[in-house]
Amino acid sequence: MVEKGQQFKKTEIEPQEKWGFGELQKRVREIYQEHDAQCDYGPDTILAKLMGNVVTLTHALRKTPNDFETINRSLANVFIWTSTLANVSNINIAQIMEEKFGEGCPHCKQMPCFLAQGKNAKPLLK
């Protein structure tokens, strides 16, 4: 653990060529795990920070929909705090996303979703 006021050692970071939920979660852990532990961030604090970033994103989308810099930054922060929350909760984001969406729409089991297309098709039952 790094003591308060102590400088972090800058290390060489390899660029990430392919991003997915697993890679995102791993990178967020590598970047922030020590800092978050030092700051004693628990799930409640992380959830509060996540919700604050969701509010910021909501305001940006509603009030300045063409301010892509703010929207992109806020959206990235939402993903970062979601990954942080998953990390401290020992949740594998890639796994839960695969479980939920691996077979297509979780409701109709189609891809693309019939519901999103406004079709009145009956879902396929397995």
Number of strands: 0
- The structural domain count equals 2
Give, in order, the helices and strands: HHHH
Global shape: globular
Q: Given the helix and strand composition, which structural class is it? A: mainly alpha
CATH architecture of the largest domain: Orthogonal Bundle
| Biggest pleated sheet | none
Distance N to C terminus: 50 Å
Radius of gyration: 19 Å
Unreliable segments of 5+ consecutive residues: none
Helix count equals 4
The first-level CATH class of the largest domain is given as Mainly Alpha
CATH topology of the largest domain: Helix Hairpins
Mean pLDDT: 86
Q: Approximately how much beta-strand content do the residues carry?
A: under 5%
- What helical percentage do the residues reach? 40-55%
Account of the protein in words:
This protein has helices at 21-38, 43-63, 68-88, 93-101. The longest helix has 21 residues, at 43-63. It has 126 residues and is mainly alpha-helical. It folds into two domains: 21-91, Helix Hairpins (Orthogonal Bundle); 102-126, no CATH class. The mean pLDDT is 86. It starts with 20 loop residues before the first helix and ends in a 25-residue tail after the last helix.
